[in-house]
Amino acid sequence: MLQIDNLTMRYPTGDLALDDVSVAVERGQVIALIGPSGAGKSTLIRCVNRLVQPSAGAIRLGGEDIVKMGVGDLRRARRRMGMIFQEYALVERLSVMENVLSGQLGYVGFWRSLLRRFPQPAVDEAFRLLGRVGLDHMVDKRADALSGGQRQRVGIARALIQNPDILLVDEPTASLDPKTSRQIMRLIVELCHERGLAAIINIHDVPLAMMFVERIVGLRAGRIVYDGPPKGLTDQRLTEIYGEEDWSGTRAEDDEDEPPAHRKVAAAVGPPELQKAAGA
Amino acid sequence: MPVIEAGDHRVWRRRDRAEQLRNWLIWLVGTALFIVCWRFISERTIWIFVLDAPQQAWDMAVRMSNPPMGYFNRILQPMWDTVNMATIGTLIAIAIATPVAFLAASNTTPSVYFVRPVALAIIVTSRSINALIWALLLVLVVGPGLLAGIIAIALRSIGFIGKLLYEAIEEIDETQVEAIRATGAQPTQVLSYGIWPQVLPAFAGISVYRWDINIREATILGLVGAGGIGVQLQASVNSLAWGQVSVIFMAILVTVVFSEWVSAKVRHAVL
């Protein structure tokens, strides 16, 4: 569904961030993008919704090439891509509800959005999503009054209210503690399965990525050096991506009886269970 | 390096010898300059006038004491005019300075090479001329009275508000703006959702701060005929009615304290 072909990005400073990258993401597929800092992970997902303009290559979400789109088409294409940020990127001085509804801006005219007169179906959906991420009691709080995990939940709701086809997720857990990180990753993966959403998740935490996703893409210096299931990520592969290091203990020790978490999440997708899993 | 090897231990000093010498030299030159300037001022001062300054000050204080409180009723209207002059002038300035600030801020300007220099020029021109001088010119152009004062205050405040506001706009967190842009929002929506909430506290703070300054400035614009309490002040000084002058001073003091209180409240409310 998302087709990235020969994407190259060279910053005006001369740094080559992406070097001829090609990836295809299928509908409903959640992939983790791993690699050392500066490998081009952030640049890659920012190219997809063109927060940065790639130097060469093509990106297709369904149909037209995003790289060549005009302003209006680009705005319409961005509505179909929800983005989740490392530092949450909520508008700190707006309320939780306003932040969630800002995900609807692509669908609502300027004056309606200025006067906060969002269409009732959008407001209903916002309440539903806030309930789903476990924040229905926080609707009127200002974003800067929330904890890190709560902010990221608002960020997730803001991305989902766009009703996107794909989520672009940039280091969702890098500012969170280990427990919250797992909850947030689980929530993102669950929601993707629930809605048949594809996702590209940039992530530093390799064990966490291996726990939750079915496909991992490894980037090094702007090139793809691994693309396959978490199982295939051997010590040798990790060395190829990150450089020489003792990798023992990185992979969840191959416990064959225990199905990986992403499969458990997929199996558990049924509304009542989800309500419970989403709590905490 | 200010670390000196001294046998088995290393001595650390804040400055090494050359730096120390230079430091002393700077102090020496500074002191010499001060003495020279002092002599220069002293030679041009008529010391006989200065010597009886305490006497003169006391005389004036005596003449200003026992103010005619009945005069207070007659300055209520001019005082009210003064406050209005400051308020309307500030509002006009806000209306003009806000768009100018967005055009001047490097992250919101539509064109770095054409629009931004124009906006910056407007800000600098407005800032470089004091409200009193604007008033002096405007009294000649639009005639004496409140209108000249209002325009003078507005012209001076555009630069002040514009400069502080565009600096605040340049300091916003760009990722919040990116997040709004990533939803497919139009540029106007990015402005109202991503940028405006971030600069709102600065905007409110700057506006009331300028209003506060303008009330004080408005009290003197009357000296050049631009309306307000300054007209009465000048008339009283010219007619040596020192009692009236002290009533005016008290009225100004009360008004300024009031405006300080209002601006503190507003800033507190917005933060």
List the helices and strands and how they pair.
The complex is a heterodimer of chains A (280) and B (271).
Chain A: E1 2-10, E2 16-25, E3 30-34, H1 41-48, E4 56-61, H2 71-79, E5 81-84, H3 96-101, H4 110-114, H5 120-132, H6 148-160, E6 166-170, H7 178-195, E7 198-202, H8 206-212, E8 215-220, E9 223-228, H9 235-242, H10 261-268, H11 271-278
Parallel strand pairs in A: 3-7, 3-8, 5-6, 6-7
Antiparallel strand pairs in A: 1-2, 1-4, 8-9
Helix pairs in contact in A: 6-7
Chain B: E1 3-6, E2 9-12, H1 17-43, H2 47-51, H3 53-64, H4 71-104, H5 115-128, H6 131-142, H7 146-170, H8 174-182, H9 187-221, H10 229-238, H11 242-270
Antiparallel strand pairs in B: 1-2
Helix pairs in contact in B: 4-5, 4-7, 4-9, 4-10, 4-11, 5-7, 6-7, 7-9, 8-9, 9-10, 9-11, 10-11
How would you describe this structure to a colleague?
The complex is a heterodimer of chains A (280) and B (271). Chain A is α/β, with parallel strands linked by helices and 280 residues long. In chain A, 37% of the residues lie in helices and 20% in strands. In chain A, the strands form two sheets. Chain A has a six-stranded mixed beta sheet with strand order 5-6-7-3-8-9, sandwiched between helices. In chain B, strands 1-2 form a two-stranded antiparallel sheet. Chain B is built from eleven helices and two strands, in the order E-E-H-H-H-H-H-H-H-H-H-H-H. Chain B has helices spanning 17-43, 47-51, 53-64, 71-104, 115-128, 131-142, 146-170, 174-182, 187-221, 229-238, 242-270, and strands spanning 3-6, 9-12. The interface between A and B is medium-sized, with 31 and 21 residues.
